[in-house]
Queue: 2 jobs
Job 1
Amino acid sequence: MTVSRLVVLGATGDLTRRYLLPGLARLAATGRLPAGLAVVASAVDDLDDAGYRAIAQESLTAAGAEPEAAAMLLGSLGYVRADVTAEADLRAVLSRGHGPVAVYLALPHTLAGTVCAHLATIGLPEGSQLVVEKPFGDGIESARELNRAVTAVVPERNVFRVDHFLAKNTVLNVIGLRFANRVFEPVWSNRDVEAVDIVFDEPLGLEGRAGYYDKAGALRDMVQNHLLQVLALVAMEPPPTLGEADLRDRKADVLRSVRAPSAEDMTRLTRRARWSAGNLEDGPVPAYAEHDGVDPGRGTETYAEVSYRIDSWRWSGVPFRLRSGKALAVRRREAVIHFRPVPHLPTGLRGRPSPSRLRLGFGPDTLRLEIEVNGPGDPFELERAVLEQELCPGYLPAYAQVLEAVLEGDPLLSVRADEAEEGWRVVEPVLDAWRRGDVPLEEYPAGSAGPTARPGDRPW
Ligand code: BG6
């Protein structure tokens, strides 16, 4: 059943203004906004329909939305002022319109439980959906609690836990690459793969998000959700279909087999750091700890590294290293499959061959296979060759794709309850160890390549 209304709670916030409104406009521009859909925006701000439309127009212009699409969206947009912690206010929001509704919680995650409790009391029409943004809780217990709260509102199949990485075309390319070709799957295991790196380095700093980020940190912000989801897609068994159950079952199998580093291995298998003063492209940047809204005593990391093992027949013994950091020199987003060296190099072939590597780039979207070949000139001298292909960008930006899936009622690209809990299961021991101070908080200058490599570590 598709919904006839989209209610956005938190409609004056950053997420709505920067991603949801432009995403809806993109759907309108490509003819994908369902005819007759009413969009009900709600926030605590004292506004009326016209006042909110003016704000929305500003966001759409800033995002470069096509004027016709923007006008179409504005025409379907209404506003209801509400304090989401007050049940009566939520009732008033939901009384605007009839039929199944998608309720999008574009709110600080700490409010999700309260809002769900009210929605469960009020009751949503059959076929309604609930969309919950990350972070989904802040640990395994709160994720479990939140899972109970959301499924008291709508059944699990109608819950959309958003992870916009799953709506990136690039990330989804992993599925086509692995399962529509015979060449990769036979070498996609511990027999031929030595290690897998999943890297998401950003030159961006805080972007005015200190209030959220300082409480989250890189591990919660990127690893618990996005990077573990990429790991799941890279490591999963072939699903028989791309139905939501098959795909999410296969991802959940992987996540269940991920082993968190033990307390003894924490300093070897994890690293945390935060940026110190340095230079980014736009000029000098003060240390993270000096930014407004940051509590330096909290020791929040802006860089996180964790090496996981997957306890399965296919992946036993292969390290999956995940890393993400902010204020770094280079924007690098990729999964790198490091293959093992050949068992024997024919005597007479000259050179120092490096093992093959496959790089899946997530923006720009590229596929890069690095191999050894006989070089020019002396035919027995080896040389590195790179086969590279830029891949098509998706027809929709990630948030438009997220919204399209919500409006179509297809949870394929959202995170299931068990996946969210498994993510916390393998991240929480690291958070605990870091909180206890078992792993030192290192520093790296803004605009650098991150913390200095440790002796013996495989270079990133
Ligand atoms: C968000 C994180 O979920 O993803 C941000 O909160 C991060 O810190 C962002 O910058 C990266 O996503 P994108 O869409 O910019 O690739």
Note: The chain is about 35% helix and 25% strand.
Job 2
Amino acid sequence: MDLRAAIRTIPDYPKPGIQFRDITTLLADARAFRQAVDELVQPFAGLKIDKVAGIEARGFILGGAVAHQLSAGFVPLRKKGKLPHKTRSVEYALEYGSDALEVHLDAFVAGERIMLVDDLIATGGTALAAVDLLRQGGAEIVAAAFVVDLPELGGAAKLAAAGVPVSTLVDFSGH
Ligand code: AMP
């Protein structure tokens, strides 16, 4: 089935000029959800992935399902202050100001092979911060997979330039 048709677009959300690509409609459609997870897994199924890291919050839903399918562990990458144990943190720039992603120090060990999952890649700022965070702990990032790519914003290209094999399922033009 056509995954693109299962994704809803909300114009001018959360601010004017942004076309918000809402995957909740895809998640609610059993066939679309299964197909999306199958397609996220497929290119990397033979890679001996130890863990899947998902970016809060939509990356948890997709990443959890991908981890289950790969028989891998799951590592949540969370916004600042949400994880209860000792964390490593990385700050990254947003359009206005900055944000931080955190991971538990004991969520993985150096040398583990990790696949990164999120719903969408736009500028790549969030995903690059996630790669930085995982590499600081000695992880080998063997893949990054996203349902939606906004290629004009260049994030997937930046991730590839950082040495991460990237797979995306559907692309949309514009922001
Ligand atoms: P970026 O760091 O610019 O690659 O932005 C990626 C993060 O922001 C992802 O976690 C997305 O969920 C969210 N995001 C950015 N742009 C959009 C958009 N147009 N529609 C839906 N989510 C978006």
Note: The two ends are 25 Å apart (CA to CA).
